[in-house]
Amino acid sequence: MVTTSARADAAVVVRGLTKHYGDKRAVDGLDLDVARGECVAVLGPNGAGKTTTVEVLEGYRRRDGGEVAVLGQDPGTAGRDWRTHVGIVLQSADDAAEATVGELVRQFARYYPDPRDPAEVVAAVGLQDRERTRVRRLSGGQRRRLDVALGIVGRPELLFLDEPTTGFDPQARHEFWDLVHRLRDEGTTVLLTTHYLEEAERLADRVVVVAAGRVVGSGTPAALGGRAARSAVVRWVEDGAARELTTDAPTRVVAELAARWADRGLDEVPGLEVRRPTLEDVYLRMIGEAAGTTDGLPAATGATDAVRVGARVGVPA
Ligand SMILES: Nc1ncnc2c1ncn2[C@@H]1O[C@H](COP(=O)(O)OP(=O)(O)OP(=O)(O)O)[C@@H](O)[C@H]1O
Asked: Which residues form the ABC transporter domain (predicted)?
């Protein structure tokens, strides 16, 4: 049940959301909370139900079941005023191909009661040199930037970003991340979907992993799936052979190795490497477990779990 108090505090409350397309359960009992001012990244494999969920929250798609409150209202019935508080960046927007970038952003600004300055928005997404360019002449990445401009020009309280940086070059992606940080600093709540784990790590206060229409994990990017507490793998080369040790005390293992090499009059331990599971490792494990197939994960992921020696200290000679 989405209670009245939950509605007052939260930007988004979803309980037991379901959506079917024929026999296909695209969303299958999904729960989600986004606090006001928070940035939440929804991760999940192709077809997990991310876009369907976001479209329900945006009021673009009818749900089959469950309860949804977005800025305190049901997006299925909310009116025009609600829409002016919500910014939407679709995966592929219908553009007015013959309009110029500047014309389109100014036109969108007129739909909102308190819009941002269109010229500033165009500059914020890095399209100032394209202000007079017709939309149909933009590159794929430039069109995505225009989509983002159209999503933020209304100064939304809550911004939905569905795979916002697909097709961006690395520099544009970094600029976009800076832009999202600025929006966050202004208090904008952000819900984004992405396939880029680095993007989730850079932007999100919290990551939600969705597989087969359900949430299979959530947490801060640093702690997701107990990542901060998980063991590290220390690797080095000794007597011409690769050595590996999984430990909860990597600093002590490295100190012991260093001491052993110092005894031999050497400064450097050959091939020394300390690796903790990355967000990608944890993510792949979660969706693998959700699919019932943890086989086939990248070798590095398997290696992290290969040898569990707990807090053992003492490097095998
Ligand atoms: N309009 C539709 N009609 C029929 N099936 C659909 C429709 N939209 C989505 N689906 C199906 O519903 C499931 C969830 O799709 P959805 O687009 O929500 O996933 P997604 O997590 O956003 O995927 P991606 O990462 O590829 O964007 C998929 O199996 C998809 O094929």
From this structure: 12-237
Ligand 1 pocket test: which of 46, 57, 61, 62 has the largest number of ligand atoms within 8 Å of its C-beta? 46
How high is the pLDDT of residue 313? 35
Torsion 30-31-37-42 (CA) sign: negative
pLDDT of residue 91 exceeding 70, the answer is no
Query: What is the 5 CA–ligand 1 centroid distance (Å)?
Result: 32
| Residue whose C-alpha is closest to residue 10's, from 26, 25, 31 | 31
Among the ranges given (16-25, 35-44, 50-59, 97-106), the one the predictor scored with the smallest mean pLDDT: 97-106
Which one has a higher pLDDT value, 308 or 31? Answer: 31
- How far is the CA of 101 from the CAs of 6, 33, 52, 116, 178, in angstroms? 40, 35, 28, 15, 21
Nearest to 161 by CA among 68, 66, 88: 88
E strand map for 152-287: 158-162, 189-193, 206-211, 214-219, 232-238, 241-247, 273-275
Q: Break the chain into its structural domains and give their ranges.
A: 10-219, 232-276
> What ipTM did this prediction achieve?
0.96
Ligand 1 pocket mutation, candidates 51, 92, 160, 162, criterion most atoms within 8 A of CB: 51
Q: What is the pLDDT of residues 251-269, one digit of tens each?
A: 999 999 999 999 999 999 9
- Tell which residue, 267, 272, 290, has the closest CA to residue 236: 272
